[in-house]
């Protein structure tokens, strides 16, 4: 395989790794994350990474003889995306699931994000509608519905879940906005600076909830398993996961990046099977095959004309 072709595969491999990390994270949170209040968990998750991220950013800029410079409007954008991620996506997902179920969360909270992203991209004329996209996106969404419809609490819509389902759909809209907004930044600045600013803004937005709901007695009641869950989510699922995610996003664009979200039900089922000893039903086998087929179709599409900002000298050094 030629080096040029190999380089083109790296962003795709990056997204597969990201969703493997996030799939394992769902199992981790099932084991230890239930001990935590959602807002406290996410607040600590973002805050715990800030010292490490800023130390790395400092040495990155120093080693490359760079000066930290970012336009004020881009600071506002990246900080807004950090708050959107922490409060509007992560915390809202956990809140919405109190009024709906995990199957609806997989379909409405995550599954509709690529659909919304492609609609926005088509309206903005950033992508062209090809037969691969026309077939691949609906196939992926239908396959996710198959995966989560096999259990007693499978995907369904009704009055009993309406409040949560509306919030889950809103979460998908926010996810699409996050992808498109971050795609404007990853071509202009080093990822280490963007991740540091994003996580700092997210942590500060959740800090009041941490101070309000947690005290010394709360923390001492958390078991070792709960702390391991927090450490995994902070370092691997969030710091490493979002770094690889945004690096790959800069090379694939928001549409192809969002399509990889359909891998999550598949990557979550595998660690659930080996670690939690959950069964994998025929629905999941069929749906998983459908997801992989859809991913192949979407990622093989070559007719997209994504408008991208030229890479800056700083980004070229990554």
UniProtKB/TrEMBL annotation:
Subcellular compartments: Cell membrane
Annotated TM spans: 12-31, 43-63, 75-97, 103-124, 131-154, 166-186, 193-212, 224-247, 259-276, 282-298
Residue ranges of every copy of the EamA domain listed in the record: 15-148, 162-298
InterPro entries: AA-Vitamin_Transporters, EamA_dom, EmrE-like
GO cellular component: a single term: plasma membrane
Pfam families in alphabetical order: EamA (PF00892)
Topological relation to the membrane, as annotated: Multi-pass membrane protein
Keywords of the record: Cell membrane, Membrane, Transmembrane, Transmembrane helix
PANTHER family: INNER MEMBRANE TRANSPORTER (PTHR32322), S-ADENOSYLMETHIONINE_S-ADENOSYLHOMOCYSTEINE TRANSPORTER (PTHR32322:SF18)
Family to which this protein belongs: Belongs to the EamA transporter family.
Entry protein name: EamA family transporter
Species of provenance: Paenibacillus sedimenti
């Amino acid at each position: 395989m030629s080096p040029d072709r190999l380089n083109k595969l790296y962003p795709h491999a990056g997204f597969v790794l990201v969703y493997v990390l996030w799939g394992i994270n769902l199992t981790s949170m099932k084991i230890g994350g239930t001990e935590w209040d959602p807002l406290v968990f996410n607040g600590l998750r973002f805050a715990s990474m800030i010292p490490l991220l800023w130390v790395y950013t400092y040495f990155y800029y120093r080693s490359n003889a760079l000066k930290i410079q970012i336009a004020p409007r881009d600071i506002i954008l990246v900080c807004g995306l950090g708050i959107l991620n922490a409060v509007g996506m992560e915390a809202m997902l956990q809140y919405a699931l109190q009024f709906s179920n995990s199957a609806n969360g997989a379909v409405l909270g995550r599954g509709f994000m690529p659909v919304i992203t492609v609609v926005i991209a088509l309206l903005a004329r950033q992508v062209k509608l090809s037969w691969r996209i026309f077939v691949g996106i609906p196939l992926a969404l239908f396959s996710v519905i198959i995966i989560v419809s096999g259990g007693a609490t499978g995907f369904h819509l009704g009055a009993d879940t309406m409040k949560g389902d509306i919030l889950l759909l809103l979460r998908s809209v926010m996810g699409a906005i996050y992808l498109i907004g971050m795609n404007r930044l990853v071509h202009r600045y080093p990822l280490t600076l963007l991740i540091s600013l994003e996580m700092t803004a997210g942590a500060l937005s959740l800090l009041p909830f941490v101070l309000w709901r947690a005290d010394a007695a709360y923390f001492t009641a958390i078991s070792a398993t709960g702390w391991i869950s927090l450490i995994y989510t902070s370092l691997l699922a969030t710091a490493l996961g979002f770094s690889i995610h945004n690096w790959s996003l800069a090379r694939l664009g928001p549409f192809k990046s969002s399509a990889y979200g359909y891998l999550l039900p598949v990557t979550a089922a595998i660690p659930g099977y080996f670690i939690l000893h959950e069964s994998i039903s025929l629905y999941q086998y069929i749906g998983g095959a459908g997801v992989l087929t859809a991913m192949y179709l979407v990622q093989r599409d070559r007719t997209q004309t994504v408008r991208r900002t030229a890479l800056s000298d700083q980004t070229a050094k990554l």
